[in-house]
Design goal:
elongated, 12-stranded antiparallel β-sheet, 7-stranded antiparallel β-sheet, 28% helix, 10 helices, alpha+beta
Amino acid sequence: MRNEQRGARSEGRRAVSSRLALRARVVTPDSRLLAPPAGLTLIELLVVIIILTTLVSAAIPLLSPTNDDRRLREASRGVNAFISAAQMKAIQLQRPFGVALKRLSQDTNTSSNPIHDDNAVCIELYYVEQPAPFVGFDETSAVQLALDNGPSGKAGQLQVRFIRRGDGEPQSTDLLPDGWDRDPIPPYMIRPGDVIEVLGAQFRLTDTSTDSNTPGFYGPTSGTPDGTLVMVPVNDTGQQINVEFDDLGRRMRDLLSGTLPPPERPYWTYPVAYKILRQPKPTAAEPFQMPDGTAIDLRASGIGQHDFFYVPGVHDNAEGILIMFAPEGRVSRVTFSTLPTDAIEGSVTQFDESVTDNLFLLIGRRAIAPPPRAASDKSLSTASGNLPAVGAPGAEQLLRDIKDSVNWLRSESRWIAIGSQSGRVVTVDNAFVDPRTVILENGTVPQSSEELRNEQILAAREFAREMTQIGGK
């Protein structure tokens, strides 16, 4: 009995020991289960991120355009789209519509400093449209012309007066044809610079005596005498004006009978219908502002090979530049002043005509439009001997300095080319130009800074000239 009890207690102890051992094995983990998992620690991950960030930061400038390049591309796309929209508007409206290039100097000029470098910079463009021609408010509205033989008359200058059918005073009183009265000039309708077309001949109104009640426009009291304006021919048709408003037989009969006093100058023409082509005026559309740091360099921009929009001492006034498109999409007219405002008796000479040459606009950096005078004077004159030859000490560094300071020598600059006849508007890269190798068409080397700069600009337009012929964007 005791043995059985002893055996039972022994079995119980073994069972307890077995359960404790099993519990110990379950509670105490195996050493292999305590090994760290495979992977990166937080510190290692941060180090990798820093290395990748450094590599990407170093690679971005090499793989993407510079800030200047991006801004110039954005500016050229914007100008291209703005001009193309004006062309489409002219086609849609079936009347002249265009773009005005506003010189920066229009905002920065002062009365004491009317001519400065801001005349060579454009950072704003706006739309302009030509109003419908004015033909008078009455179906009998007409004009009379006369050669201006007064003390202030100039060669080719004429006078014009506006008349219409009416009861009229006797011819001997108002010197108008019988049955005609003066037609007062309506306010806010005609202004200096408008073109009057008579029998196919065109004349530009140059009289500066605008009406005090309508500043900038002619009114009933404009001219001397009132309502008589001065004008000059725009196109020479070779047509002679008939300076008698009565037939010769009646004139001689009245003179001999004493019923009409001898005629006094000026001698007026017969009444004839007219049409006044009014100047373009700004529209209410939002203007286009060039991106910050960019501008249209007007020193390199212009028409064809010789008519630049800005040349110091020649084309350096603050007047804006108008590019008008005809209803069929071609460039109809280009207008800009070609002399300083004080060059000829306080007036300006206008370039205002149809063009057959293409137009070129250079999109470049604002800070170097026009090029700094120091850079231009010391480095761009072959005649002065300041431009070192290839291989000379410091030549390459000086060349880089020159190219960085001149828009038409920088590879980042862009050209907007406008085909005068096709109306095609294209954006083209600037051609590479080495200022040390520029020569004239006759094979000679330019002998002045101005001549050299002109040749550099023409060379920089090489791709733009080709694209206006074959098209493209």
